[in-house]
Amino acid sequence: MDNTIQNYFLQNLSQASRTMGYARESIGVITGRLNTDLAATPFELVHQEGRVRLKHYMPPSGPGLSTPVFIVYALINRETMLDLQPERSVIQNFLSKGIEVYLLEWGYPEAKDQYLTIDDHVNGYMDRMINFICHRHQVSALHLMGVCMGGTFSLIYAALHPEKVKTLITTVTPSRFDHESGLLHVWMKNLDPDAMVQAWGNIPGDVMNLGFLMLNPSRLMMDKYVGFFRNMHRKTFVEDFIRMERWIFDSPDVPGATFHQFIKDCYQENKLIENRMVVGGKTVNLKAVTMPLLNIYGRYDHLVPPEAARNLGESTGSRDTRDICLDTGHIGIYVSGSCQQAFVPAIADWLKKRDRQAKTTKGQTCAAA
Known about the structure:
Low-confidence stretches: 359-369
Number of helices: 14
Strand content: 5-15%
Structural class: alpha/beta
Distance between the termini: 86 Å
Shape: globular
Largest sheet: 8 strands, mixed
Radius of gyration: 23 Å
């Protein structure tokens, strides 16, 4: 046999053998027992108002701060992102640093919830949960951390109720909307929220998800599945991939009235940063945010680009502000291995210094919920 033909035959035979081996490994993985559970960290359910629940996480060695951290997630998608997988869990990393955590779970809005406004979420649910935590710990204020839209809510809350917020942490939080960085901001400026609320009441989570996927269809709808087929022989990869898919497509609807005000007041009229936004009959003045502020965002975030999040402290009344920009995207900030080594440790160190500097006064507690 000619050497060229023989070599060609042997190369293809070797490739076929590797392909068969890969196929056997992959079938073994995807048909075997997989651990794809989300939010596996044990918690105590301490308070509930209808669909809205308050989860409590206690560090194994006890709390290392005088007051706990209250985390408010966005209304879009679910708070399980913060406890997505065991080895990359923001919640578990906080606990390992001795930080006691309360986490707000918004649940799944029903048709009757379409009339709930930002006021109902901020001055209603959030305020009552904070009152409950303060009363439970006999403190007057707590550490407040917001994620994405939940960060915007937390910023509004801190401006309206500064006496109840010891420190404020905003992560991938949109606050500035007077730019066209990122396709989402361009779309939102041209959206008709009146028509959407009239058509649906609550904005369907599936509609929101489709919009997010269309921001980068090549990467979010094609590349990631190509990557899956290339790595489906790796059990850990498959488990993490399925966890992420479960989180992405577990999308609660967004209450119509809240969606309407958020789009109109923030994306289209930039009222928040200009101190013109009205919530609960009161103007939100960011100069009232005088507590220490830590603002964290992602350099490659396509949903909340740096232009929408950075330099937040300049618009507040706080004299203790810090910006941290991580080399990651919107979700990577919570699940990337490299970011996990920087994200929680930075927050923990920042909190512990300020927790010591400004001890909460005992006896002056928030009203009981």
